[in-house]
Write a structure and sequence with these properties.
- There is one protein chain.
- The protein is built from 5 helices and 10 strands; from the N terminus they run ααβββββαααβββββ.
- By secondary structure, the protein is an alpha+beta fold.
- A 10-stranded antiparallel sheet has the order 5-1-2-3-4-10-6-7-8-9.
């Protein structure tokens, strides 16, 4: 009888140690998984949780705060609808490099580390770079507001190169015509903070 109790006690201790090792291994695997996540991965995972009622609140590198209902996350950009400011140009594109911080709601924080929801979400958009989006705006001859560290610019994108764009600056609400252009501005894409259209 005494031997049975001793062996039961040893078996229980062994099971506890094996269970503790398994928990440690799982915790280490989770730390490694989280360590591999990029900001882009977390933004993609948050996409289903953003809405006009609970937008993603961003702080941009120039100090601008903006609330966005995420619509797409690309290779190096995000796009969506601007929430709550009543501006006529609700759609925007933001380079991921221009994000200084995200102010998350509790549901967004939890969703951002859950990469299981990523499967199949915007797979084409996820491969496209910012230059592709800018070229699309150029093709559509869309009137844009471009925020840079130097200030806000308005005009129409005429050309998009590998690392720059040509902006024909003109008054808001005026179509792009040669006589309406104040100046042709060459902008490095790396200086873009926000593009509204």
């Amino acid at each position: 009888m005494r031997w049975d109790n001793l062996f039961d006690d040893l078996e229980s201790q062994l099971e506890q140690e094996i269970g503790a090792e398994d928990l440690d291994l799982l915790a280490e695997e989770e730390r490694l998984r989280l360590g591999r996540l990029s900001l882009r991965d977390r933004l993609r995972a948050m996409m289903p949780t953003t809405s006009a009622d609970e937008p993603l609140r961003l702080l941009l590198v120039d100090g601008t705060r903006i609330a966005v209902d995420l619509g797409a996350v690309g290779r190096d950009w995000i796009a969506g609808e601007v929430c709550g400011d009543g501006i006529r140009l609700p759609s925007c594109v933001i380079p991921i490099a221009a994000i200084a911080g995200c102010l998350l709601a509790a549901t967004q924080s939890v969703a951002s580390v859950n990469t299981a929801s990523e499967a199949g979400v915007g797979t084409l958009a996820a491969r496209l770079g910012l230059a592709f989006v800018l070229r699309d705006l150029c093709r559509r001859r869309a009137s844009v507001h471009i925020l840079t560290a130097a200030g806000m610019l308005h005009g129409t994108i005429d050309r998009v190169g590998r690392d720059h764009l040509d902006l024909a600056e003109h008054e808001p609400g005026v179509p792009r015509r040669d006589r309406a252009i104040r100046v042709m501005r060459l902008l490095p894409v790396s200086e873009l903070v926000l593009v509204r259209f």
